[in-house]
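does this look right to u?? FE2/S2 (inorganic) cluster version
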Amino acid sequence: MPTIEFTCPDGSCRTVEARPGASVMETAVKLGVPGIVGECGGGLSCATCHVFVDVDQIDLTGRATDFEEEMLEDAVTPPTELSRLSCQVTMTDALDGLRVTIAKEQQ
Ligand code: FES
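got this back:
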């Protein structure tokens, strides 16, 4: 299974295995990775699943869509060009080793 390496808001790192087809948000919430809230359950309406993708991997995940960018403008932690809503990033084998940093504040 592909792995995701999370850098958590407290600076600690956690590597987990993800089920292909699950989103990064679903994976984090299911496995108890701290920092991703996922309040709307992936409905693209809360922006509490904000992560920053590693600069070397942003082309693999793709950039935020226009609507996602609008949502990110309402995120508590200001977005950057590496920001994604993690409910919109679906894990595949091609994303094995994905590295994301969780936004420090989500609510
Ligand atoms: S979980 Fe709500 S926008 Fe991602």
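The chain has three helices and five strands. idk if thats expected tbh
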